[in-house]
């Protein structure tokens, strides 16, 4: 089988330069500036920074550019994203210098010694986002137990907490203290057989992170580029809820191999899950499947099963969206207790019904991971 030819950035720019915005008659490359160009895992992801006033107007041109790239490089799937950054007004009350061009925000401190031209996560074979359209559906609990379950499946696993405003990973893994720094890189903290990193390890857990989008995106960039993740079969990223700056940053920078959407069965949660699926489809990130959390409740005394939030909604939604359904997770007090105590239930109570559900999920995801193309 012939090896897939990797298009160069120059070839991609040539294609984009041929796309003309009909109103102005200018090339899309003249109208916008390439902010990021990721070429990996069979996908081309191009991010163009444009003036805020032009962003909505250029959507059709971006779609035309995607089609042009697909024709030019038929073995690759292309996505062209537009970003519009408002200029930062100078602050006369402070003498702090503005970040250098290309340096970006570094809210976690440090100077950063990574060459901007180097790929992120070069030793990570697969990156999976665990996401939800809204908060409160058990996404973080699912991410933690999935990651621990993948370790039990024999994979080397990292777990990154991208929820900057509500980092819960340190508490759920029983981690305290700050991570070490070696050669300018943060060292992930090892717990339950996996390597973990969260902004919650760097700040007091009661501290509120009152940050706007650029600071959040800067922090996520540092968690990706300033952490010595090492060689991993899979990095699981616990995403913040919603479809905002953090999700777009990770889709642009991390070259996600796929995404898992967590939802509860009721219609209102499924509506938000639908938005999450649409966002990943827009950024050409494969949706690996849906998980129905809090699917049912079993009484610990009589084992009577009650479907508190309905049942089967995520399975039906997966069928409607034509994406895999990955499994049901019950609503059990032991899951909450294990999270509060800092031990994933797949480790704390491996024979429990909840642990078996998470292990089944991890086994299914392991099969998917082994079939996904490596990022490098």
Q: What is the makeup of the main sheet? A: 8 strands, mixed
Order of helices and strands: HHEEHEEHEHEEEEHEHEHEEEHEHHH
**Shape label:** globular
Strands across the major sheet, in which order? 8-9-5-10-4-11-12-15
CATH superfamily of the largest domain: P-loop containing nucleotide triphosphate hydrolases
Number of domains: 2
Helix proportion of residues, in percent?
A: 25-40%
Briefly note the CATH topology name of the largest domain: Rossmann fold
Question: Alpha-carbon distance between the termini?
Answer: 18 Å
* β-strand amount: 15-25%
Count of helical segments?
A: 12
Any low-confidence stretches, pLDDT <50, length ≥5? 87-103
Q: What's the total count of β strands?
A: 15
Mean pLDDT: 80
Secondary-structure-derived class: alpha/beta
- CATH architecture heading of the largest domain: 3-Layer(aba) Sandwich
How would you explain this protein's 3D organization?
ATP binds at residues 133-140. In the C-terminal section; belongs to the Mrp/NBP35 ATP-binding proteins family. In the N-terminal section; belongs to the MIP18 family. Keywords: ATP-binding, Hydrolase, Iron, Iron-sulfur, Metal-binding, Nucleotide-binding. It comes from Acetobacter sicerae. The protein has 376 residues and is of the alpha/beta class. It has two domains: 11-83, Fe-S cluster assembly (FSCA) (GMP Synthetase, Chain A, domain 3); 127-371, P-loop containing nucleotide triphosphate hydrolases (Rossmann fold). It is built from twelve helices and 15 strands. Strands 8-9-5-10-4-11-12-15 form an eight-stranded mixed sheet, sandwiched between helices. A three-stranded mixed sheet has the order 1-2-3. It has a two-stranded antiparallel sheet with strand order 6-7. A hairpin with a 2-residue loop joins strand 8 (189-191) and strand 9 (194-198). Helix 4 (139-152) packs across helix 12 (353-371). The longest helix is centred in the last third of the chain and has 19 residues, at 353-371. Mean pLDDT is 80; it is low at 87-103.
């Amino acid at each position: 089988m012939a090896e897939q030819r990797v298009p160069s950035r120059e070839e991609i720019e040539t294609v984009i330069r041929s796309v003309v915005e009909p109103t102005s008659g200018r090339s899309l490359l003249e109208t916008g500036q390439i902010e990021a160009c990721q070429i990996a895992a069979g996908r081309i992801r191009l991010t163009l920074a444009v003036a805020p006033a032009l962003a909505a107007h250029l959507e059709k041109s971006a779609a035309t550019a995607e089609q042009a790239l697909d024709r030019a490089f038929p073995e690759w799937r292309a996505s062209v994203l537009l970003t519009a950054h408002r200029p930062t007004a100078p602050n006369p009350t402070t003498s702090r210098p503005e970040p250098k061009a290309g340096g970006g925000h570094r809210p976690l401190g440090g100077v950063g010694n990574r060459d901007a031209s180097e790929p992120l996560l070069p030793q990570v074979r697969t990156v999976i986002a665990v996401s939800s359209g809204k908060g409160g559906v058990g996404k973080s609990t699912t991410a933690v137990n999935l990651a621990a379950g993948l370790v039990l499946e024999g994979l080397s696993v990292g777990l990154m907490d991208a929820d900057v405003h509500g980092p819960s990973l340190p508490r759920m893994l029983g981690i305290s203290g700050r991570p070490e720094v070696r050669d300018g890189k943060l060292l992930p903290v090892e717990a339950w057989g996996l390597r973990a990193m969260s902004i919650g390890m760097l700040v007091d857990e009661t501290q509120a992170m009152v940050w706007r989008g650029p600071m959040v995106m800067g922090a996520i960039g540092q968690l990706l580029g300033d952490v010595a993740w090492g060689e991993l079969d899979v990095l699981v990223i616990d995403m913040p809820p919603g479809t905002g700056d953090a999700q777009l940053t990770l889709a642009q920078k991390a070259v996600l191999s796929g995404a898992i959407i967590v939802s509860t069965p009721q219609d209102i949660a499924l509506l938000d899950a639908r938005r999450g699926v649409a966002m990943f489809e827009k950024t050409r990130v494969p949706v690996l499947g849906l998980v129905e959390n809090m699917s049912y409740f079993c009484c610990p005394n009589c084992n009577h099963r009650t479907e508190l939030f309905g049942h089967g909604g995520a399975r039906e939604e997966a069928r409607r969206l034509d994406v895999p359904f990955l499994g049901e997770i019950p609503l059990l007090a032991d899951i909450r207790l294990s999270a509060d105590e800092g031990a994933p239930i797949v480790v704390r109570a491996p024979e429990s019904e909840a642990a078996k559900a998470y292990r089944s999920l991890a086994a299914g995801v392991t099969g998917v991971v082994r079939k996904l193309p490596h990022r490098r």
